[in-house]
Recover the amino acids of this structure.
């Protein structure tokens, strides 16, 4: 009893609060617009329509939204009903565009249901409105749609008539897409008429246009139609291939309408190929998809195909049921082609069931339809001839009438009047001709101008696209290089910090230093790759051709990577098919650089299995193959691997590292030696890189001669050198290098002093820093040349960009030496211009002690901080820039990377003459100097 009272009380309370809740949760038009699912949108739309306060305009919006959603969801019957309501809600004066669209879209909804006659009626109504409103493009679209309906009804004469009318309009006002679509439809007519060559030619042209427009749906339609051509011409393998291409796309976008057709086509091919079970499954899928969208025409085609498959499988009762269903549907949805094919299939089914009398009757009907088809073709051909004859006869009658009228006019006019008339007529003809000519010229000029503007616009768009792509490549490259630089730099700084703070075991000191050396070598190799690529692009890289044993070189590379391979549990196999030795003349360093890059990539991208380094002979020389069982690459990725700053995809750099320069640089180096690198790869199965080298085997003695002629160790040099360097620690360090080579050094701190010493002492060689106070390196060089100084002058600077180096050489400098100093290249550059002092070798230059110079440089940080602070406060940007450049050069020389980076950042900002933006970089440099000085004092 208490339970019933509680229920009644709950119901009363619910009724009491119901109006308030309903008012609070009343649906809105904005909520309706945001709904995408058909069921939810239908429910919300009906709720809005039942509201008596809704306006006529909002009702129009709701009908249009429901109709569009139903059409996109495959609810074609509902779509037709709501487009019908939208038509009733609008008119030619009230929302005319929506009124026109409602009528046209009713035709679309009916077409998708296979109700072709009704669809033509609605399309024709919409076409009349488009003609009245002078909408040529809409007229062409509707003509195309009507032609498509007739095509599906197999009424090819009417189809072609409407297609040609639409094509004529598209040629005037249509887009490239419109012209391609109508050509595709016309090609379908040629296919039905067995004009396969004509159809295929159109398909090939249209396919190129669709690919250019990136129209995947159009490409799929072309593939399907090409499959039809190959099927009807009995090229079944090609038909199957193109049907499958189209099917894959329709599956990816879930196009139910097209999938019904595709599975019917595939089933028909597989019937002929005797793949009955597969054809049976595909025919059932075709029926399933046609029922899903309630398209009777597609259901007709699928049922007929299923009946044929069931006949082959021996399912005679099911086949008979389905073919009878076909003829029932044909009563409402006429299709001459399906009816003829259905009669043939029905006759075969009856014969298989033993009903030979029915089979013969059906076969006779089938033959009658074929004869009727031939008869119709003859009648249509005669009709065309009759039209041509009547047109010719009418033209002849018109010509005779004109001649009679002209004769009467000649009799009516007098000679004088005729003369005046002819004169006036000639005058008018001339005026009209001039006017027409000018109008034509203006029209041609406008058309030419429009074409030029369109062409220029397309070119600019292409250039813009290329620039955007180049900017993306640059951004990705900078990100990769930044990552690659920071990785070894982090290890170097970490190890250095550990050594400074004595966080290591004394017996492991050598190991700790080797870590720093290994990462420094990697950093140097990365920068060299960038500079090598810059030299190649500037056509300044020169090869050093030597005679060497390439077998020994490959063995060295194999030994170099064997430890890395074992660390990853990989087998590194060397397959030598050349012999114990093979001496040839190539650039040994570049060949080794290429092999190291290929092997490093193979180990980097291989997680399990093996890597084979194979050395073989070829007709032109040698081929070195590096084959791995790694991650492999797809065909799309293979197109990118040799492009500059690019890897197979962007995820590679995130997972494995790298700048994307290695393979591009290797390919260019190989090309410089007359060879090339090719690649074969399969995704997730591995890759094979083949390095082809055109070379011939030479005598081993040539290698021995070159080896004997090559200098083994550096010898002492003789001469006097002027060194101009504004940073005192740098000046002392370089002076020490020079004296260790046996040279006499005159060290100065600016360009003015350097000119003075050169003209006074006339040294054997001059080293000029580029950025110095009082007078910079460029000005000092130009002044020396004006004074007739002819001795070698080298640019000595930390600016290592290729365009800057080119600038120094174009100015006339003998050469360029970068900072920090590379001892070997430094000695080589100087020894090429100075004489050897003695025959005894020395290695002092490799044992220069810089510890006291580093200490002196660090002790100067307090004075440096005070100097740059004064220049910053006084806003003397020139002096501040020279301070930062001086500190940058010294920090690079002594390996103080943290200070070098801060000085470099400030130097770059000051070169742009921006005091405001340089404040942060100035503070960072001062803080870094004080921090390093503090650590030094504490130690």
């Amino acid at each position: 009893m208490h339970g019933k009272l509680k229920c009644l009380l709950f119901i009363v309370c619910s009724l009491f609060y119901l109006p308030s809740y309903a008012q609070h949760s009343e649906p809105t038009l904005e909520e309706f617009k945001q709904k995408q699912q058909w069921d939810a949108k239908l429910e919300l739309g009906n709720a809005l329509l039942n509201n008596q306060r809704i306006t006529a305009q909002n009702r129009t919006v709701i009908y249009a939204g429901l109709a569009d959603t139903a059409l996109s969801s495959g609810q074609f019957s509902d779509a037709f009903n709501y487009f019908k309501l939208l038509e009733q809600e609008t008119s030619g004066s009230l929302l005319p565009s929506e009124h026109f669209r409602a009528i046209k879209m009713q035709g679309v909804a009916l077409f998708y249901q296979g109700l072709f006659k009704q669809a033509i009626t609605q399309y024709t109504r919409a076409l009349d409105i488009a003609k009245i409103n002078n909408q040529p493009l809409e007229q062409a679209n509707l003509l195309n749609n009507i032609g498509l309906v007739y095509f599906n009804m197999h009424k090819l004469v009417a189809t072609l008539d409407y297609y040609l009318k639409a094509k004529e309009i598209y040629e005037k006002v249509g887009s490239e897409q419109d012209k391609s679509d109508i050509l595709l439809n016309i090609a379908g007519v040629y296919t039905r008429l067995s004009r396969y060559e004509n159809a295929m030619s159109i398909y090939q042209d249209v396919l190129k246009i669709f690919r250019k427009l990136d129209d995947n749906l159009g490409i799929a339609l072309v593939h399907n139609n090409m499959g039809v051509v190959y099927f009807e011409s009995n090229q079944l393998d090609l038909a199957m291939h193109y049907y499958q291409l189209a099917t894959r796309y329709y599956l990816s976008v879930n196009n139910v309408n097209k999938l019904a057709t595709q599975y019917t086509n595939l089933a028909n091919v597989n019937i002929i190929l005797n793949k009955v079970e597969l054809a049976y499954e595909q025919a059932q899928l075709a029926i399933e998809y046609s029922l899903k969208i309630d398209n009777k025409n597609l259901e007709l085609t699928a049922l007929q195909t299923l009946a044929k498959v069931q006949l082959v499988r021996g399912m005679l009762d099911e086949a008979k049921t389905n073919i009878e269903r076909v003829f029932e549907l044909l009563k409402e949805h006429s299709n001459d082609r399906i009816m003829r094919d259905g009669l043939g299939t029905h006759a075969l089914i009856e014969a298989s069931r033993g009903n030979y009398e029915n089979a013969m009757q059906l076969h006779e009907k089938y033959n009658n339809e074929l004869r009727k088809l031939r008869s119709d073709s003859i009648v249509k051909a005669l009709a065309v001839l009759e039209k041509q004859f009547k047109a010719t006869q009418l033209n002849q009658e018109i010509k005779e009438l004109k001649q009679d009228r002209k004769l009467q006019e000649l009799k009516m006019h007098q000679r004088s009047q005729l003369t005046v008339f002819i004169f006036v007529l000639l005058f008018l003809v001339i005026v009209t001709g001039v006017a027409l000519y000018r109008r034509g010229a203006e029209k041609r000029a406008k058309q030419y101008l429009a074409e030029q503007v369109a062409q220029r616009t397309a070119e600019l768009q292409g250039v813009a696209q290329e620039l955007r792509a180049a900017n993306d490549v640059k951004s990705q490259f900078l990100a990769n290089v930044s990552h690659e630089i920071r990785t070894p730099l982090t290890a170097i700084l970490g190890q250095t910090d550990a050594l400074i703070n004595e966080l290591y075991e004394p017996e492991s000191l050598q190991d700790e230093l080797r870590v720093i050396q290994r990462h420094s070598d990697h950093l140097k190799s990365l920068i060299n790759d960038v500079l090598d690529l810059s030299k190649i692009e500037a056509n300044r890289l020169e090869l050093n051709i030597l005679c060497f044993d390439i077998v020994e070189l490959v063995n060295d590379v194999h030994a170099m990577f064997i430890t890395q391979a074992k660390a990853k549990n990989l087998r590194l196999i060397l397959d030598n098919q050349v012999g114990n030795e093979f001496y040839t003349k190539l650039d040994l360093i570049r060949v080794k650089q290429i092999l190291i890059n290929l092997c490093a990539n193979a180990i980097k991208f291989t997680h399990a299995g093996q890597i084979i380094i194979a050395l073989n002979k070829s007709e032109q020389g040698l081929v070195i193959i590096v084959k791995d069982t790694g991650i492999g690459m797809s065909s799309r990725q293979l197109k990118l691997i040799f492009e500059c700053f690019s890897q197979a995809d962007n995820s590679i750099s995130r997972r494995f590292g790298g700048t994307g320069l290695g393979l591009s640089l290797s390919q260019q180096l190989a090309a410089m030696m007359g060879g090339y690198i090719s690649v074969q790869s399969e995704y997730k199965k591995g890759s094979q890189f083949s390095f082809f080298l055109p070379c011939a085997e030479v005598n081993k003695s040539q290698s021995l001669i070159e080896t004997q002629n090559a200098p083994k160790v550096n010898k002492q040099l003789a001469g006097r050198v002027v060194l101009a360097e504004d940073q005192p620690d740098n000046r002392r360090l370089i002076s020490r290098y020079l004296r260790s080579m046996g040279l006499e050094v005159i060290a100065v701190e600016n360009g003015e002093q350097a000119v003075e010493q050169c003209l006074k002492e006339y040294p054997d060689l001059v080293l000029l820093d580029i950025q110095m106070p009082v007078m910079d390196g460029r000005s000092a060089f130009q002044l020396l040349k004006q004074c007739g100084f002819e001795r070698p002058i080298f640019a000595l600077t930390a600016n290592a960009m290729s365009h800057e180096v080119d600038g120094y050489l174009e100015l006339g400098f003998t050469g360029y030496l970068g900072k920090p100093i590379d001892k070997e290249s430094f000695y080589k550059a100087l020894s090429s211009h100075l004489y050897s002092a003695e025959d005894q070798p020395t290695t002092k230059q490799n044992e220069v002690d810089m510890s006291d110079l580093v200490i002196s440089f660090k002790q100067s940080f307090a004075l440096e901080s005070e100097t740059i602070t004064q220049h910053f406060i006084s806003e003397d940007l020139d002096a501040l820039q020279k301070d930062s450049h001086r500190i940058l050069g010294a920090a690079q020389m002594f390996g103080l990377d943290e200070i070098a980076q801060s000085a470099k950042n400030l130097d770059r900002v000051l070169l742009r003459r921006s005091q405001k933006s340089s404040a942060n970089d100035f503070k960072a440099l001062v803080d870094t100097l004080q921090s390093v000085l503090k650590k030094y004092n504490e130690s």
Observations:
- Residues 887 and 903 are 6 Å apart (CA to CA).
- The chain is about 70% helix and 10% strand.
- The chain has a mean pLDDT of 78.
